[in-house]
Amino acid sequence: MDKKIVVYICTGCEIGESLDVDALAKVATSEYKVPLCKNHPMLCGKEGSSLINSDIENEGVNTVVIAACSPREKADVFTYDPTVISMERVNLREHVIWCHPANDEDTQMLAEDYMRMGIIKAQKMAPLEPYRSKDEFNKTILVVGGGITGMTSAIEAATAGYDVVLVEKAPELGGWMKKLWKQYPKSPPYLELQPTGIEEKIKEVMSLENIKVYTGAKIEKTAGSPGLFDVTISQNGNSETVKVGAIVEATGWQPYDATKLDSLGFGKYTNVVTGIMVEEMACKGKFARPSDGKEAKSYVFIQCAGSRDKDHLPYCSSYCCLTSLKQAKYIREKDADAKVYIIYKDIRTIAQHEIFYKKVQEDPGIFLTKGEITGISEDNEKNLVIDVDNTLLGENIQLKAEMVVLATGMVPAAGIKMKEILSQGTTEESCKEKKEEVELPPDTIIPSDTLNLAYRQGPEPPALRYGFPDSHYICFPYETRRTGIYTAGCVRQPMDSASCMDDATGAALKAIQCVELTDQGKALHPRAGDMSFPELYMSRCTQCKRCTEECPFGAYNEDEKGNPLPNPTRCRRCGICMGSCPERIISFKDYSVDIIGSMVKAVEVPDEDEEKPRVVAFLCENDAYPALDIVGQKHLTYNPYIRVIPLRCLGNINLVWLADALSKGIDGIILIGCKYGDDYQCHFIKGSELANTRMSKIKETLDRLSLESERIRILELSLDEYDKLPGIFDDFLEKIKEVGPNPYKGF
Amino acid sequence: MAETNVSGSILVIGGGISGLTTAVEAAEAGYKVILVEKEPFLGGRVARINKYYTKLCPPTCGLEINFKRIKKNPNIQCFTMAEVEAISGVEGDFEATIKINPRYVNENCTACGKCAEVCVTEIPNKLNYGIDKIKAAYIPHPLAFPMRYMIAPEIIGTDEAKKCLEACKYDAIDLDMKQETMTVKVGAVIVATGWDPYDATKIDNLGFGKCQNVITNVIMERLASPSGPTEGKIVRPSDGKEVKNIIFVQCAGSRDENHLPYCSSVCCLASLKQATYVREQYPDSKVTIFYIDVRAIGKFEGFYTKVAEDENVSLIKGKVAKVEEDPATGDVVVEVEDTMKGDKIKATADMVVLATGIVPQLPGINIALTCDEFGFIVSDSSKKGIYGAGCVKKPTGVAQSVQDATGAALKAIQSIVRR
C-alpha cells in the first residue's frame, strides 16, 4: 500500500512562540517532500484530534507524524490502529522548548533534526500484522506439580473456564501438604491448629471435568512455544504428546538434606530427627524415639538447621519457625507433661502469624530462646546434651533432651542439582576456601529434569540466586526468562502454603493472559499488546549464532547448520536480537536497524568551522527517556547539541549505527540504559548488559576509523535520577570539545 | 447523574500498586476494568517510596511500565479523585456508586504549567505527608498518571483561582466543577485500598510529635527521595543538619498488645534499606537498629546479611523504653534495654526513625467483607464476587502484594465467567 503521509505540528504549549514553525514545516515539505504539513494550536484538543482523524478517514492518510509533546503524553488522544496507521511522535515540547532557549538558532536546529528523524522513521514504518501461526493456537494450561501450589493453579484456571493438564510425578496428588498432620493457624483468631484441607483440594481437582490429571508421570519433552507447546508426558511406560498454550511450573521443594548437618548430630545420634519426621510421628499418633520407640518427654527444636547458614542454605526458609511452633503444640497437646525448648536465631512469624507465636509463648511447657548451638552429644541412654551460647537466659546453657528436632529448610525442586553445578571444575576445598555465599554463575540452567525444554538455550528456565528460577522483579514477580512459563510456589521462593496458594492463583492468571494474547498474535509483558515481531531475511544470515545466544528469553532455536529458527510467540519484542545481528537481517515492521540508522543519518551535521558539535544519545525508552521528559517538565536546561533516539531497550544497539553516526561526522555517541549486574533493572534482563559488552568491543571499529574511544560513552541511569541527566550531557559535550571535532565531517 | 453501563467488568477500588496490578493484569487477560483511586494520581504508597528493598531500585521504573500498560489498553477506565460510595447486588451483578471529587482541571489540560506560573498560594504537599508546601495549582507527582494539573480546593473562589483560569489557554480549568456521582454495573469488585502507617503519636514513649527529630519510616522515604521535600538529602527536620548518626526503632507499635498485636512484615527490611540510604549518602555515618527479631524472610536474608556486614551498622536486640529530646542540641536520646546482655543502654542520635507498621485501610462503605479483629480482609468462600488484594489482607511487601493482586484478578474473572 502506498504511503500517504501527513505531518502535524502542534503550536500549543508555546511551541509556536518558541520555534520557527514555518521553517520546521519546510523541513517536512521541502526536504522530505511530505505533501502536507498542518499546524494546529492545540492538536490534543477535540478539534485538533478530529483534524487528524478526518484526514485518516476521508483522505486516506495512513502515516502520521505528530510533532507536539512527548509520546508519553496524550496517548489516549493520539492512538491509532497500528495495523492500518503508522504513527510517530516528535517530542518538541519536553525535549526541545522546555529545556532550551526559545527562538534560538540551536533550539531551532534541534527541533528540525527531530522533525527529520520523525519523518524518516514514519516513512519507513509499515503497518503491523498480528502474528499468525499455520497451526491453531492452543489455550490449554499445563500445570507441572500436583502439590498445594499446582493443584491451586489447576483449580483456579479451570474455574475460569480453561482446560488444564496437571502432571504429578508421585503416584498421588497432594505433595508435602499431604504428609502434614495439621497446619498452623491461617484464619482468625489465629490461635488453633487447623486441618490441612488437602483432601478437599484433591477432591476438587478430581471433580473438575476440565482438569486432566496425570499422576506417576513425568515430562519427557517440552517443544514449541506459547500457544503451540507440544508436551510429551510419560506415564506407566507409555508416552503421550499433548498440546498446551502455557505452563505453570509448581514443582515445589525438597527438605535440605539433614545428613549434611552432622555438626547437629543428624545421622550420628539416633534421636536427632527432622521436622518432616515429626510430622510422620504426629500422623502415626506417637512421638516415638527412633532409638527405643519410647515416647519422648523432652525436646529441643533447633531452628535454621541449614538455613541462614553460608555453608548450607544462605537464605531463610520462611516456614520453619511457624512449623516448629506448630510441632511444639502437637507435642504439648498430646502430652501435658512434655517439655519443649526452641532455640532460634530470630523468630520470624510475620503478619498475623505473630498471634500464634504469642499463644505458644504463653504455654508453660514451651521455652523459647535465641541462641547459638555450640555442641551436641549423646549420653548412654541416647539422650542428647545440647550446648547453647549467647542465649537470653545467660551466656552458656546446657540442655538435655530425649529428642532433638532439626528444623531443616527448603531447597527448590528445580535447584536440587545446584551443588553439582557449583562443584563442577572446583574442588570441595577450593569452595570452602572462598568462604563466600554459594552463588551460581549467571544464566546457569540446572538440568532438573522438570520441563526438558527443547530450547536451544537449555532444558529448563535459567536459575537465579540460590537455584530458584524466580523472577528478579519486585514489581513484576511473575516474569521469567522463558515466555509463557510461570513458576509458582516454593520452586521459586521459600514460602508457606497460604502464600503458595496466592502465588498459584496469580501464576494461573498469567498463564491465561499468555494464551489469550498469543491467540491474538500479540506480545506479552512488558510490551503487552505489541503486534510487531521480528522477521529475518535468512538469505543474508551467516549463522554467527549471536541472536540465538543472546536472546534473554530463549526465543530462537537453531537448525543443524546453525540457522536461527525464530519462535515468535516466545518473543517479547525487545529487539535485542536486532542489535546483536552483524548482518542486520532482523527487523520489525515498525522498528529496524535501517529505521534507526536512517534516523541517525537524518541528523544534519554542521561544518567544523560552525563549532556546533553533534552528539547522538540512544536512550532506553522506559527509564532514561521518561527521565529526560521530567527534565523538561522541570525546565532544567542542557546542551542543545544532543539528538535523542529512544530505543525499546539499550540492548537494541547495533554497532552499525555507531559506525553510521561516526562516519557521518557525528562527534560523539552516548548510550544510557538501565542498571545491570546482580540487581539489574533492565526489563529485558540482559539488554543493558549486552549493550555494555558490545561497547567494550567497539574499539575495533573506532581504530578502523582512527577515532578516539572517548567519543562513545555508555552509562546506567534509573528513572528517578533525572536530575543527573543535564550534567551527564553537559559533561559529555565538554569531553567532546576536548577531543575535538570528528574528522569525518563533510565527507 | 451520569450512568455507565459496563456490566461484566471488574471494579477495582484503590490505585496503589495492588489495585493497579489487578486492573492491568485483568485487562491484559481481556476483561474490562474500572479503576477507582481517591488521590489525584495512581501509585499510592509505592509512589512515595524512594527505593524498593532489596534491589534498591526506584518504584517509578515499574510504575512507568504499568502506566504504559494502562495507556495502551482500552479495557481500563481510570478515575482518580474518586471514591466508591456504595455497592449493592450479588456476584456477577453489582451496582456501584462512584463519587468523583472536583479536580477543577479537565482532560483538556496539556500540563503546560501556565496555571502554576501565576499561582502563589502554597498548600501542604500531600505527596510528602505535608512536610513541605506546593503551589495550589500543581502536578501531584513528577510521574503523575494522569499527567494533569489540579487546583487545590483551598483557592477555589479566590481571585487567584481566577488568575489560573485566565492563564490557561486550553479551557482546561473549570472552577465550577462539582462533585459528580455515577453508577456502574460490574460483575466483581476488588478491594485494594491498602494501608495507613500506624499513628506514631499514639506510641507515647517513642517521642513522635514531641521530639522534632523523631520521624517515621514513611517520612524517611520522602526525605531520601529525589522528589521529596529535600530533593533526596537526608537532613533532620529541626535544623537541616546532615544525619550522621541515626537510630531505627523497630516494632514501633507492631507486635505490641497496646497497639498492633501483629507483625507488620515489612519494617525490618524497610529499616535495613533505609540504613543503606544513610550509609550511601554519608560514608562517615553510623546506624543503629534496635529490634526484637530481624524478620528478613526468605531470600531477603541475603540483603540483611549484606547490610549487617557493614561495620557502621549495628543491630542490637533490644526494646526501646524511652525516646527524649536534648533541648540544647535537638539530638534524640534513646533508652533501650539490651535483651541479650540484660543491661540498659542510653544512646544519642541526630535523628530517630520509628519503624511504624501497617494498618489496613478499608473503603469505609458497607459491603460484604469478612475481616479479622485487626481489620484485615479474610477470604470467605461464602462471599463471592468481592475480594481483597494486597495489604488489606495482610501486612506485606510490594512483590507479594503484586502476586496477590494478580491472583485477585483471576478471582474477579471467575466471578464474571460464572455469571
Please tell me about this protein's structure:
The complex is a heterodimer of chains A (747) and B (419). Chain A is of the alpha/beta class and 747 residues long. Chain A is 29% helix and 21% strand. Chain A has a 5-stranded parallel β-sheet with strand order 7-6-5-11-22, covered by helices on one side. In chain A, strand 17 and strand 18 (384-391) form a beta hairpin. In chain A, helix 6 (148-159) crosses helix 13 (497-519) and helix 16 runs parallel beside helix 18 (655-664). The longest helix of chain A is centred in the last third of the chain and has 23 residues, at 497-519. In chain B, the strands form 6 sheets. Chain B has a 7-stranded mixed β-sheet with strand order 14-20-15-16-17-18-19. Chain B has a 5-stranded parallel β-sheet with strand order 4-3-2-12-22, with helices on one face. The model of chain B is unreliable at 1-6 (pLDDT under 50). Chain B folds into 3 domains: 2-101 and 179-194 and 361-417, 3-Layer(bba) Sandwich (FAD/NAD(P)-binding domain); 114-167, no CATH class; 198-358, 3-Layer(bba) Sandwich (FAD/NAD(P)-binding domain). Chain B has helices spanning 17-28, 59-72, 114-118, 159-167, 217-224, 267-281, 301-309, 398-417, and strands at 2-4, 10-13, 33-36, 76-79, 82-90, 93-100, 122-124, 133-135, 137-138, 150-151, 180-186, 188-191, 195-197, 214-216, 245-252, 286-291, 313-325, 332-338, 344-349, 351-356, 358-360, 386-388. Chain B contains 8 helices and 22 strands. Classes of the chains: A alpha/beta (747), B alpha/beta (419).
Please give a quick description of this structure.
Chain A has 747 residues and is of the alpha/beta class. Chain A is 29% helix and 21% strand. Chain A folds into 5 domains: 1-128, Rossmann fold; 141-254 and 413-519, FAD/NAD(P)-binding domain (3-Layer(bba) Sandwich); 257-408, FAD/NAD(P)-binding domain, CATH 3.50.50; 535-572, no CATH class; 591-747, Rossmann fold (3-Layer(aba) Sandwich).
